[in-house]
Amino acid sequence: MYYISENVVPALELCCLNISMTDLILQTCDTFTTVKWLARHGLIANKLVCRTCRHPMCLQARGSNRDGYCWACSKCGRTKALRHGSFFVHSGLKLIQILEILYLWSSERPQVEISKQTGVSPRCLLNWYNCIRDVCARYLTDNPVEMGGHDRTVEIDETKLIERTNRRGKYKPGQWVLGMVELDTNIIMMVPVDEIDAATILPVIAQYVRAGTRIVTNRCQDYNALPQQELTNYGYTFVAPEDSINSMHEIWDLCKAKFRALKTNDNNFSSHLQEFLWRRRIKDNFFGNILYWIRHYYDVFNLVTFDF
Ligand SMILES: [Zn+2]
């Protein structure tokens, strides 16, 4: 069997991958070392078996190919793209460019700077960002938040994000978002909603907040005015804040600052919100963690065994 890299690092090691931009550039200084780096970190297949004749495939230099190499079967001559089955299959960019974009995205550098540094056009960068945010969205779907429960308190609040007036004075109404934060643990969830009346919000809360929770809200009278049967079904106690909704307001400030800097429009609002939530959940080392989740969702190992 032919292997690109002698070893592949265990997936969990990616979560604590601590690498500077300089080291990443040094470790991926040419096409082959980049290919080897990606195979060693489990981001492209490290071995492949020919689907036709079951013969192990080898790496073959291909000057005309964007990756510089492809998989080739020495028995039947069949070839396969190096990025076959991997996250990188979505893009026409060079592998090193994608790796740099992933690094700079993780560092939350401004898009203009990333575009200049990588030589990738802003439009192409945006497409690629959407692919990264899809990974964040899949993570959030597969790892749903559950908060609250008996003796637990969750603060809830609603705000409008991306509400603004443009240079010509035209008003954009923005998007209502329901925010929930569990006190003590600081677990958060934010969900775009069309209406903010208590009857609409209650089932949304129920998707994330366990029964029996004490819920602090500025609008507790609205919730307490709902039909008693409905409130009994959910088992929540709605109370007014002693002072104000502090924890959620701090998160809104962070979120609004981020959205202002991005100049986000309505089209990709949800995906930016998912990125914000992903970063809150992951906390640090975004580069290592995004690589971990890419590897998780683009399982190039199963691809090989399936082919066997
Ligand atoms: Zn073959």
Concise summary:
This protein has about 300 residues and is α+β, with helices and mostly antiparallel strands.
CATH level-four homologous superfamily name of the domain at 153-282: Ribonuclease H-like superfamily/Ribonuclease H
For the largest sheet, list the strands in their spatial order.
Answer: 8-7-4-9-10
CATH class of the domain at 153-282: Alpha Beta
Bound molecules: zinc ion
Rg calculated over all Cα atoms = 24 Å
Terminal-residue CA separation: 12 Å
Compressed to H and E, one letter per element, the order equals HHHEEEHHHEEEEEHEHHEHHHH
The assembly state of the depicted protein chains is single chain
How many β-strands, per DSSP? Answer: 10
Give the fraction of residues assigned to helices.
40-55%
Low-confidence stretches: none
Q: What is the name of the CATH topology of the domain at 153-282? A: Nucleotidyltransferase, domain 5
Strand fraction equals 5-15%
Shape summary: elongated
**What is the average per-residue confidence, as pLDDT, rounded to a whole number?**
90
The CATH architecture category of the domain at 153-282 equals: 2-Layer Sandwich
Largest sheet: 5 strands, mixed
Number of helices: 13
| SS-based class | alpha+beta
Structural commentary:
The protein has helices spanning 11-15, 21-27, 31-40, 95-106, 111-118, 122-142, 198-208, 220-224, 228-234, 246-262, 269-282, 286-297, 300-307; strands at 57-61, 69-73, 79-81, 153-161, 164-165, 171-172, 175-182, 188-192, 214-216, 237-239. The chain is α+β, with helices and mostly antiparallel strands. Among the domains are: 1-83, no CATH class; 153-282, Ribonuclease H-like superfamily/Ribonuclease H (Nucleotidyltransferase, domain 5, 2-Layer Sandwich). The strands form 3 sheets. It has a 5-stranded mixed sheet with strand order 8-7-4-9-10, with helices on both faces. The protein has a 3-stranded antiparallel sheet with strand order 1-2-3, with no helix packed on it. A two-stranded antiparallel sheet has the order 5-6. The chain starts with 10 loop residues before the first helix and ends with a helix. The structure holds zinc ion.
